Amino acid sequence: MKKLIALSATLLSLVIFFPIFYSISASFFTYTDFTSIPARLFSSAPTFENYRRAFTESKLERFLFNSLITASLGTVVRMTISVLAAYTFSFFTFKGRDILFVLIVATMLLPSDALLIANYSTIRSLRLTDSYLGIIATSLLAPTHIFMLRQYFKTVSPEYREAAILEGCSDTRFLTTLLIPISKAVVITLAIHSFSTIFNDYLWPLLVTNREAMRTVQVALTMLGFSENLDYGPQFAAITLLMTPILIAFVVMHKPIQTSVSTRFTGR
Is 187 helix (H, G, I), strand (E, B) or coil? Predict the structure, then answer.
């Protein structure tokens, strides 16, 4: 049974990582590699020309900068709102708390595409088009994050907060020095998810940006390569560059998440 599970996990890992592997490999392809029959997995003559073209044939560095700024700023604001909201719903009692929480969670059922026109009209009326705030405005409230953090915070006994308050600890200090460290695993995971989601968003940044200088890198991908003659090299080079921040974040945060989860559930 264990061997079957290990084999299934290995096959699933190969399915998941093959697109990543092929994107990195194809970023070094020449034009003839894309048109060769049978299809290749490795370049016949690896070259960095695709990376050079990715930067010279578009303002990729500017687009990448825009994406990093919006993803970083959006993640910080979104996680701040989510943590504070989850803390309020977990440890404070006030009239209408449960109804308000249900309403927030209910918005998870609304398809984002159905809100595009209303969101665009609002952003345009506020004159936030072609701005970083306009790009991240629709991403600041994350009901899923609030729900998950609230459920995690509820596993922490209220007695910890009561004891901290009796010792003169403020809610801000209790949240930052005790609750967030205890919940580090879920906080880091949601932060990585937020960064990835905002960084990879395509449709909304395309709608609210008109100036080329404000475009994000996902929009820039459509400006690279030529599908008519199978010239996909610059696109694969750009895709490889785009995967780098997410992969780095995963590698850097993987061990802290694993350690936090292990400590949380073993009681150490």
Answer: helix
Question: Pick from 239, 230, 233: which is nearest to 45 by CA?
Answer: 233
Enumerate residues 6+ apart whose C-beta is below 8 A from 97.
89
pLDDT in tens, 164-217: 888 888 888 888 888 888 888 888 888 888 888 898 888 899 889 888 888 888
Specify the pTM.
0.78
**Contact call for residues 153 and 190 (beta carbons, < 8 A):** no
DSSP letter at 267 equals T
CA–CA distance, 72 with 184 (Å, rounded to integer): 18
Residues 6+ apart with CB under 8 A from 23: 236, 239, 240, 243
- What confidence tier does 85 reach under pLDDT thresholds 50, 70, 90? very high
Distance from C-alpha of 15 to C-alpha of 257, rounded to nearest angstrom: 24
The β-bridge partners of 226 are 231
User: Whole-angstrom Cα distance, residue 180 to residue 86?
Assistant: 11
User: What fold, for 59-228+244-266?
Assistant: MetI-like fold (1.10.3720)
* Residue 19 CB contacts under 8 Å (≥ 6 apart), including other chains: none
- Does residue 74 register a pLDDT over 90? yes
Only one residue has tokens 């960095």, namely 48
Helix (H, G, I), strand (E, B) or coil at 59: coil
Q: What's the pLDDT score for residue 77?
A: 94
Using an 8 Å Cβ cutoff, are 123 and 139 in contact?
no
